[in-house]
Amino acid sequence: MAGDEPRIIASFDSYEGMLDTIRERMRQLQVAGTAFDQFCGLPLAYTQKIIGPRPIRRLGMSSFGPVLNGLGLRCLFVEDPEGTERLKSRVPPRNGSYVRGGATHLTLTTRFMQKIGRLGARARIDNSTAEQRQKWARAAANARWGKANR
């Protein structure tokens, strides 16, 4: 049904185009900046810092979602057939033998942690002076004797 189609507000392909769209949407809805900031949970006057005439902040990961949700907008990525064809004609396809399937999981076992701990201890000893090693040995001996006398 044609009535169920979402209304397209704008089309853009740059950050500036997105900012222009957000500015126009705020003008259409006649929303005041500080009231909008409060509604979205943003710091006061933050919207002006993002979309003002000379923005001093950028719409980033923290503010992107609240701003779009506050304006009643969603992103929809649409394929540009000319751009896709241009990419395919200029960039060779990747070698499938280099592609990893799924995520790589690493389980940190006690044995593994002990192994890398020994490597770290060995590196610490190798990079220390004789005086430092003597000081550590004395502290370890004192700790052992202290336990024995308790």
Structure notes:
This protein is mostly helical and 150 residues long. 57% of the residues lie in helices and 0% in strands. The chain has helices spanning 15-29, 33-40, 46-51, 61-70, 81-90, 110-126, 130-148. The chain is elongated and about 85 Å long.
What descriptive keywords fit this protein?
150 residues, mainly alpha, 7 helices, 57% helix
* Biggest sheet character: none
Low-confidence stretches: none
Spell out the helices and strands N to C.
HHHHHHH
Task: Name the average pLDDT.
Answer: 87
Proportion in β-strands: under 5%
Structural class: mainly alpha
Tally of alpha and pi helices: 7
Please compute the radius of gyration using only Cα atoms: 30 Å
In which range does the helix fraction lie?
Answer: 55-70%
**DSSP strand tally:** 0
3D shape: elongated
Give the termini separation. 84 Å
